[in-house]
Write a structure and sequence with these properties.
The structure holds 2 protein chains of 2 kinds. Chain A is α/β, with parallel strands linked by helices. Chain A has 10 helices and 14 strands. The longest helix of chain A is centred in the middle third of the chain and has 16 residues. The chains are: A alpha/beta, B mainly alpha.
Chain lengths: ~300, ~375
């Protein structure tokens, strides 16, 4: 039997006239990795900051491991570990020193040498934070988040700005945490990351949670397995695209088109025949399977990285 | 408790590793002391140069002259021509010129209780108010002494001549406590305001807010580390001062240390308020400057508070730096016992309490 670790109820946060988070609700079960996916400014960070007690919600609430974030913030802080977006630390301290400092903020903590080993920082333990690479700093930030062995871990865009190899290393660390039974809330704007790491994903856009499901079911809900990408010269009449066989959706940005289909072969043949008959020049033609990015475009009509 | 020690240790490590800051916060007061001390120190801050033109030449006028001569604060020149002496006064070679008119000795011999006081013309340069005022004060004190001695002849009035404490103090003795006070103000008020607002901007405080750490523990750690650092810095400046300039500490070191700590706490609290007011680290500097600059000039750091214009006196007397510099000075120069300086430590303590109250209300993690 799995129990609910996080229960979020109608969270709202307003900054002046702007509603940053508008009635977000979700649940996360113990041992689950929950992803918040969305473009910058979608409200992911604000949602996480309200959950960890750094911002007061204007309305709504949440319970973490049974503790209410509005009334029992001290207990909440003991069961959660946080890694904030672009964590900044005392640059003149060494890795070891900052770990001892953060450890001292809690009644109990894990073995620091062991944690340094786990986070692959053994060689850097006596180095100052100033001299660490981006990936090492992020691993240190995660180490500080889990120094008191919390049940719930919040990671706000842990891999943003890292090179591919450093991202992979971080993914391994997150997988290890999951295998230890930690509940993880992760925000990201990388689809591949969400797909690989998360059990369930909430897609956020303009302060609202617009979809919530497992990655594979989210993609399946598109009812289109594949996408065909190509460019058409500007000014070309594109209405014919909607009438191609088995097409489910047509999107374009200037001359770059993406059409979705639940039968790649039929649609592709139809497309090529049509362009041959009408003497159209299709360029950069390629096909691929649909991804979470396509789910987002399907739901909002916009790309994640816009 | 563990967190408190860790935070204190962290701040001390940051101090020790930030060589540049450490170097300049220490170097600045010492360089200031060396430069000001070596070109002003020898002339002696309280010494004035005066010219006396004696038209009388009686034993009584000789006696008056020797009184001035014995006073270490006065450098005496005997002149014969008043006009010449006055010209030099205008060029600021003299602070004061005094004439002893003919008949001075005679008048003193026939002096009774009823007779009017003999008037000695004293000239001073109105454009150089500070020096003239100092000169007039010193001359007045000497004349006062003479007339008291004379009145002692009259049995009707019993004058108790008070012993004036003879202290051999130069400008450097005046300067060093002021520099220590200035250092405490700069390091704490400006230092705290800059550091805390920078940490806030960079999200360092925010990350700590996400832990079980309490604001009071954080602030306590800051205070402890800064008190330790300031005590060491003050000690170092005092050691340099006493080795190079023979600056004396006449009072108790414990009292001195207590004032260093009180000053550190009061200025830190003000620094925390500024950190709370400043919207970003860039504005913390100018705000702290706005607060510290007037204090530097009004608060008796470089110039005696008495030299300040009358209308500024009420302001000067509530500034924390005035009380800190005066208390340090009285402890070091004169050796006044700690409890006789109650006015100063009470004012500093009041600043401390009020400022910490405001700071705790306005402190923001982000």
């Amino acid at each position: 039997m799995t129990n609910t670790m996080i229960h979020v109820e109608g969270l709202v946060k307003k900054y002046g006239n702007m509603t940053a988070v508008n009635g977000v609700e979700f649940e996360v079960k113990a041992g689950e990795v929950f992803g918040l996916l969305g473009p910058n400014g979608a409200g992911k960070t604000t949602t996480i900051e309200m959950l960890v007690g750094l911002r007061k919600p204007d309305s709504g609430t949440a319970t973490l491991s049974g503790y209410d974030i509005r009334r029992q913030i001290d207990q909440v802080k003991e069961v959660i570990g946080i890694q904030l977006q672009s964590t900044s630390l005392f640059e003149l301290l060494t890795v070891q020193e900052i770990m001892h400092m953060y450890a001292s903020f809690y009644p109990s903590h894990v073995s620091i040498p062991q944690l340094i080993d786990d986070m692959l920082l053994t060689e850097k333990k006596k180095d100052r934070i100033k001299g660490l690479s981006g990936g090492q700093k992020q691993r240190l930030a995660i180490a500080l988040a889990i120094i008191h062995d919390p049940d719930i871990i919040f990671l706000d865009e842990p891999t943003t700005g890292l090179d591919p190899q450093a991202r992979r290393t971080l993914w391994d660390i997150i997988e290890t945490l999951k295998s230890k039974g930690k509940t993880i809330v992760l925000s990201t704007h990388y689809m591949d990351e969400a797909h690989v790491l998360c059990d369930r994903i909430g897609i956020m856009d303009q302060g609202e949670l617009i979809a919530l499901d497992t990655p594979s079911r989210l993609v399946k809900e598109l009812h289109s397995d594949s996408a065909i990408e190509f460019t058409l010269p500007i000014g070309e009449d594109d209405t014919f695209l909607h009438h191609l066989q088995r097409v489910t959706q047509v999107t374009n940005r200037d001359e770059a088109y993406v059409i979705y289909t639940d039968d790649l072969q039929l649609t592709l043949i139809d497309l090529i025949q049509h362009s041959k008959e009408n003497n159209l020049s299709l360029q950069d033609l390629q096909t691929r399977t649909a991804t979470l990015e396509d789910v987002f475009i399907h739901m909002t009509g916009r790309s994640l990285r816009e | 408790m563990k967190a408190y020690w860790q935070l204190t240790l962290t701040q001390l490590r940051i101090f020790a590793r930030n060589r540049q800051v450490l170097f300049f916060t220490l170097l600045f007061p010492i360089i200031l002391m060396l430069t000001l001390g070596s070109f002003l120190g020898n002339s002696g801050g309280t010494s004035i140069t005066m010219a006396v033109v004696d038209h009388d030449g009686s034993p009584e006028s000789e006696q008056l002259l020797s009184t001035f001569d014995k006073n270490e604060a006065i450098q005496l020149d005997q002149r014969t021509d008043v006009e010449e002496a006055l010209d030099e006064l205008k060029e600021s070679d003299y602070q004061v010129v005094m004439e002893i008119p003919e008949g001075y000795g005679e008048q003193l011999q026939v002096h009774t209780d009823e007779s009017q006081a003999f008037e000695l013309p004293v000239y001073y340069n109105e454009t150089d108010a500070t020096a003239s005022e100092l000169g007039l004060t010193v001359v007045n004190a000497a004349i006062d002494q003479v007339s008291k001695n004379i009145e002692d002849y009259s049995p009707a009035v019993a004058v108790q001549a008070e012993g004036v404490r003879a202290l051999d103090l130069g400008y450097i003795d005046f300067l060093v406590p002021g520099i220590v006070a200035m250092m405490i103000m700069n390091n704490n008020m400006n230092g705290v305001a800059g550091q805390i607002s920078a940490w806030r901007e960079r999200g360092i405080l925010r990350r700590m807010q996400g832990t079980r750490l309490k604001a009071s523990t954080f602030i306590a750690g800051q205070i402890t580390a800064r008190v330790i650092l300031n005590a060491l810095q003050a000690l170092l400046v005092l050691i340099v001062a006493s080795l190079l300039f023979n600056v004396q500490v006449n009072g108790s070191w414990l009292a001195l240390l207590t004032f260093v700590i009180l000053g550190t706490l009061a200025f830190m609290a003000i620094g925390f308020i500024i950190a709370g007011l400043a919207k970003n680290p860039e504005s913390a500097g100018p705000i702290a400057g706005f607060a510290s600059f007037p204090m530097l000039f009004l608060g008796g750091v470089f110039f005696p508070i008495n030299n300040m214009p009358e209308y500024l006196q009420p302001i000067v007397h509530i500034l924390p730096i005035s009380h800190l510099s005066t208390a340090l000075r009285e402890t070091m120069n004169v050796g006044i016992p700690f409890f006789d300086l109650w006015q100063h430590w009470l004012t500093l303590a009041a600043w401390l309490v009020v400022a910490f109250f405001i700071a705790s209300r306005t402190f923001k993690w982000e």
